[in-house]
Specification:
The protein is mainly beta and about 110 residues long. It has one domain: Thrombin, subunit H. The chain has a 6-stranded antiparallel β-barrel with strand order 1-2-3-6-5-4. β4 and β5 form a beta hairpin. The longest helix has 12 residues.
């Protein structure tokens, strides 16, 4: 995810900035899914999980009224302090993402 060159990604990234509910280790937080592609996304969060943790995400995509629930495996962390438009967060690889979510991400790409 975060370290793969663009030509090696499963699909191009799409910026969405969607509010999200995050759950791991029995805790529920609010964050933002900043970027998605078919493999996963980057989630800005006030608290960070550990590499390898599984995080349950619930979010909607722009222009789509559905809420999507997906589990992600944390594959990288960005714990740099907040600076301008950049926030701390983590990259998560989707685990068995719902087909509806994958179709909606493909539709988002058509609009960009």
């Amino acid at each position: 995810m975060g370290r793969k060159p663009a030509e090696e990604r499963i699909s191009e990234r799409v910026r969405i900035g969607a509010p999200a509910t995050l759950r791991w280790e029995g805790e529920e937080l609010r964050g933002f899914v900043e970027v998605v592609n078919l493999a996963g996304g980057f989630v800005a969060s006030p608290r960070l999980p550990e590499i390898g943790d599984y995080v349950d995400l619930v979010f909607s995509l722009p222009g789509d009224g559905r809420s999507f629930r997906v589990r992600g495996n944390v594959v990288f962390l960005d714990d740099s302090p907040f600076s301008g438009s950049r926030r701390q967060g983590f990259g998560a690889r989707f685990e068995r993402a719902p087909v509806g979510l994958l179709d909606a991400i493909r539709d988002l790409k058509k609009g960009h």
